[in-house]
Amino acid sequence: MSVMVLIGAQWGDEGKGKATDLYGERVNWVVRYQGGNNAGHTVVLPDGQKFALHLIPSGILTPGVSNVIGNGVVIDPGVLLTELGGLDERNVDTSRLFISADAHLIMPYHVAIDKVSERYLGKAKIGTTGRGIGPAYQDKVARLGVRVQDLLDPSILAQKVEAALDIKNQILVKIYNRKGLDAGRIVDTVLEQAEAFKHRISDTRLELGEAVRRGEHILLEGSQGTLLDVDHGTYPYVTSSNPTAGGAAVGSGLGPTSITSVLGILKAYTTRVGSGPFPTELEDQWGEYLRKTGGEIGVTTGRLRRCGWFDAVIARYATRVNGITDYFLTKLDVLSSLETVPICVAYDVDGQRHDEMPLTQTGFHHATPIYEEMPGWFEDISHCRSFSELPANAQAYVNRVEELSQARVSAIGVGPGRDQTIVVHDVLAG
Ligand code: IMP
């Protein structure tokens, strides 16, 4: 039995879809445990078909694998329907998708408030995806949330939506000068949408617990990334859930002792979408170079990603807070053809060297990178399938990343294709 958690080690968009797809072939279950349709995973199949998934676990593309949307996820029912429809059109079997009865629903007022509150914040905006994620999690904690199980009881659903709207409409009308929303219409729409997926609602905690008892293999698929975690990230420029490994237990209902490995997904350079500090960000031609070469455009929002060199301080931090046992280093091919490749090994904060994350957010805002220059390589590495085939300088780069990040690099991505991966250690085999 193995239960592997897959975590983004930076600010999201590290290439988790490719990693899930790689290991997804050998597991029985793939589970989403937090976030919602703010995520976007692009998976390229051997026949070149591209799939963008926002809510449904990437394991859906592998025949025979069961997929779970766990209790920690927030679900927009309209998005769920669209995604299921898209998969049906491509003849992907979705019969083994289970949805936790305890997951929370993103309602139209969450989306409305997300968008309007960002506009209201002006320069101080978070740069959210505008999908209602934060407001849905706020309601969960405020105990005003609507859960998937409420779809099974229309009168409870109506009561909950009405109670929430009593407050939300005041906020929309009185604070943001918008129109209020109609509870009856929302309830009718959601109930109609639910007809198409009601049969998938289940006690996913029990299903997963039983799977562990049977010795099956489970992949817990994190979205976003460590630095976007509401507790461990660059608060307040974070998402509203816990993408880090601890969140995997909470958001799936599996106890922490069932987790057997934590795989961090680490891009060979760094990107970020939305606002917030980013010490190695490049606002010159090199940032543009990484963006173009790496195709750094958001899958969910189409926004251009901010780009910068590899930051080992962040990677070390991710290793620590997630208990990362192994790394999948993605997009190494993007760094080919550079004379030298800088790695940030520490920060300078107001004249003081910091090898680890500064104590305060202000410190992180003032951090300037201290770089080490690694010699580059000019060979095309996209065809390499073993570590020894990589040019010596690319090997040295990977070794340095591994040393500074304090966890072994077990897989290396050398291109977007499913087969463009070098497997150094088999994580599932231990
Ligand atoms: P929210 O998750 O939509 O509330 O957005 C909060 C912050 O997280 C913003 O900076 C978003 O750009 C960022 N974010 C949310 N989801 C992702 C993702 O999947 N990849 C990268 N950034 C994300």
Topology (SSEs and partners):
Blueprint: E1 2-8, H1 16-24, E2 29-32, E3 41-44, E4 50-53, E5 66-69, E6 74-75, H2 77-89, E7 97-100, E8 104-105, H3 108-121, H4 133-142, H5 154-175, H6 183-194, E9 201-202, H7 204-213, E10 217-221, H8 245-252, E11 261-267, E12 270-272, H9 285-294, E13 306-308, E14 310-311, H10 312-322, E15 326-330, E16 340-349, E17 352-354, H11 361-365, E18 368-375, H12 392-405, E19 408-413, E20 421-423
Helix pairs in contact: 3-4, 3-5, 5-6
Residues 11-13, 38-40, 126-129, 131, 133-134, 223-224, 228, 237, 239-240, 273-274 line the site of inosinic acid.
Spans of at least 5 consecutive residues with low confidence:
none
- Give the fraction of residues assigned to helices: 25-40%
The helix/strand class is alpha/beta
Q: What's the total helix number?
A: 12
Q: Strand percentage, roughly?
A: 15-25%
Shape: globular
Give the quaternary arrangement of the chains: single chain
| CATH-assigned fold name of the largest domain | Adenylosuccinate Synthetase, Chain A, domain 3
Strand order of the largest sheet: 9-7-5-2-10-1-11-15-19-20
The structural domain count equals 2
What number is the mean pLDDT?
95
Whole-angstrom Rg? 22 Å
**Main beta-sheet annotation:** 10 strands, mixed
Main CATH class of the largest domain: Alpha Beta
Number of strands: 20
CATH architecture label of the largest domain = Alpha-Beta Complex
Q: Hetero groups bound?
A: inosinic acid
Span of the ends, CA to CA: 11 Å
